Amino acid sequence: MTVDAGSAIVVERLTKHFGSLTALDKVSFEVGAGTVFGLLGPNGAGKTTAIRILTTLLKPDGGRASVLGLDVVKDAAAVRYQIGMAGQYATVDEHLTGRENLRLIGRLAQLRRQEFRARADALLTRFGLADAASRPVRTYSGGMRRRLDVAAALVARPPVLFLDEPTTGLDLLSRNELWAVIRDLVAEGTTVVLTTQYLEEADRLTDRLAVVDGGKVIADDTAASLKSRLGSSVVEIEMADERSAASAAALLAQRRGPRPERGSNRIRLTSSDSSAVLMDALHTLDLSSLRPTAVQIREPSLDDVFLLLTGRHADDSEPAGKDLTSVRSAA
Amino acid sequence: MTAALAALRRPGRESLLSPVRDVLAIAGRNLNVIRRTPRLLTFSTIQPLVFLVLFRYVFAGVAAKTLIGIPYVDYLMPGIFVQVTVFGAMNTAIGLASDVQSGLLERFGSLPMSRVAVLAGRTIADFARNIFVVALMVGLGYAVGFRIHNGTGPFLAGLALVLAFGLAMSWVYAVVGLAVGDPETAQAAGFPVLAPLVFASSAFIPVSTMPGWLQAFAAHQPVSYTASAMRALVLGGPTSAYVWESLAWYAGIIIVFAPLGAWLYRRNA
Predict the structure, then answer these.
(1) Which residue from A326, B88, B97, B118 lies 20 to 30 Å from A204 (Cα-Cα)?
(2) What pTM was computed for the model?
(3) Average pLDDT, whole number, for chain B?
(4) Which strands sit side by side in the sheet containing A208-213, from one edge to the other?
């Protein structure tokens, strides 16, 4: 479903240092107009720095970036008319009411009075905040604040929207609501760049994504294509405890099938013929009276991809064993 | 799938007036916040009231021995006006530091608004707040016996001078607020600057009663010049030297601190 309407965002060899720390190291990517682009990576990977440069809050040390053809440094003032931003921390004024917050943002986004008033009310309704519109934001729940923050980013109907970890700390319901909003926006033609540590989120929302690690883009692809590089599906077997999982893994390792990988009480088997592997594994375990508590065949998740690319889990800081780093250089 | 792409936003109603509108929008928001924050409201109303009543009655007896010919309350009130505006300027530090901490400065930085609106809106809101506090103190001063001896015109001129001092001090505190970036630290960092300025001055007690080494500082700092100018305007006597010295101080403060504040703001946002 590639709509070639050109690139809304072009990032070329973007570099940023903070003292001796290299937050971004020659990062390049392009975002197609009307698509959702994900920046996926662990904390400190450089995602937020990239967003801050694209939203004109920070000047790069090297490279260039443009939004809708406007340079984020030279044409910063013009860029600000085209973008909306919602941050990791809900940046709304907690002493003002929800309605006052949206009106203030609309005013400062240079909308006309009737326009920002109507827009504020429409967004409050759309985000389920109409009843709380006249209450100070400090009485809002975390989910409500975050929705207001996203609403604030939308007041001026910006064609390009930046969401920095929009669902961090949200409960499942609020997260699903926000995902639905993002999909609606894209259906209306908005280009969205979001950063996330949630692998599922990037998988579910993005058309294309860059995996960022240590200030570098280590993969730039579609989620589906990244996953297909694993070339298979994953069988996951969950045992009651670590001890039984360890003996199960030992048993399975003696079989001819895929090599089991164990993480606490879960065993992961990657294969292209998952049902045969599953049948065989269950049969083997049954012979030794080992009973799984749960069994799952699933598509490889982006966590598996991260492991493949970096030799680490997305939430680890320690590199895994040698065999995985050799996969990385092959990849 | 050919999704209609969202239209480019045309720069809206931008005109020569839009920076003014931005400043007013931010100033209005800041005043709303002061009005709704009990801590800030107390800071603006109860605290100056307590100072006034305490000084008026606690120091009156001692001060009577050094002041010849004028009641202490008439000596004190010009000092109180200066004190409330200088203390009030600390609001600028607290307000800006809160905005740094909450991330609102980031949001403002990504909006197509005037780059100076956040700082200008802040100082203007605090200026408006100071007008309110000064008006309140005029009323309370009258209630505890303060009288104007030299006509309403000079008195109002004196108040204008005091408010101008508050505006200059706002820029000092804008620098403090942006530099520390959290409201509690801003308040803590503000006080050691503020206390010697206000108390080692002629605001409450004549400088001549202080030890010599302290007089050297106390006689030449802006709080003393402003208090003396205001006093001369209220009680009568030669005024122009004090007024010019005060204005020179304010100009100096703004020349140093406004660019520093603007630089810190750009670094933060």
Answers:
(1) A326
(2) 0.81
(3) 87
(4) A83-86, A160-164, A191-196, A36-40, A208-213, A216-221
